[in-house]
Structure formats: C-alpha cells, structure tokens
Design a protein that fits this description.
6 helices; alpha+beta; three-stranded mixed β-sheet; 139 residues; GMP Synthetase, Chain A, domain 3
C-alpha cells in the first residue's frame, strides 16, 4: 500500500480499522509465503483471519489438497513466528487471478520434423496438410 494511502486511511477514524486489517493480512501473507513451499505459496492468497482460523484461497483442488495435508505443520510454523493462528482453512477459488506456471516451448527433433514433412508431402491439399506445413515453418 502506498504511503499516501496509509496516511489518508490512518487519519480517518472510520477507515483506520480497514488499514489495520490490511496491515495484519499483509504481514500474515508474508509469513505464510515464507513457511509454505514456493510452488504452493505462489498459487495461494490469504483471505482473512477469523477467530484464529486463517482462510487461504488457492487456484485448484490439487494445491488445496496439498495445503490441507500441510496445514498442521504450517500452523505450527506460523505460531512460532508469532502469528495467532490456530488452524488453516483452504478454499478453492478458480476465478482468482493466479500466476500460471511458465512452460518451455516444445521443439520437434530433426527426425520428427523430417517425418512430418514426408507425411505432409504425401497428403492431398487439406486442412491437415496446411496445419502440418504451418507447424514445420514455425520450427
């Protein structure tokens, strides 16, 4: 949060509780990221803390299952860092904008390129032939 917004929210008595909550959640998010394996932390977001239960939104069911497995251990690690967390509740929120893992572009081997070229030359003019030619031009 920018310093200007902190100052604005801090001066307004009605907005001050909101600022306090944002700051608590920001600290919790930092602690959560530091104790959680990176591949899980990058697809997780802290939603809130209510009566000691930390709510975490995740990108998919696979991540949710792994976090649920690790929840007791993560709770202990957060408590050791001074966080007042007694448990972790995981929610799958597919609509949340999470960073997608980067995948390396696949490259065809010379043998595969040669085989596809031979196959495309044997085909009559068709959408398949045009798709193969386009694929071979990109490689």
């Amino acid at each position: 949060m920018s310093q200007h917004l902190k100052t604005l929210f801090g001066r307004n008595q009605e907005l001050r509780p909101l600022l306090d909550k944002v700051q608590v959640l920001t600290v919790l998010q930092r602690h959560f990221v530091s104790v959680t394996p990176p591949y899980l932390a990058e697809s997780s977001r802290i939603l809130g803390l209510r009566q000691g239960e930390l709510s975490v939104a995740v990108a998919n069911a696979t991540i949710a299952a792994k976090l649920r497995q690790l929840a007791p251990e993560l709770t202990t690690l957060l408590q050791k860092r001074g966080c007042e967390v007694s448990g972790i509740r995981v929610k799958v929120q597919v609509s949340h904008d999470y960073p997608q893992p980067r995948s390396a572009p696949h490259k065809l081997s010379k043998t595969a390129q040669s085989a596809l070229l031979d196959f495309s030359l044997a085909l009559d003019d068709s959408p398949l032939k045009r798709a193969l030619e386009k694929l071979l031009q990109e490689k």
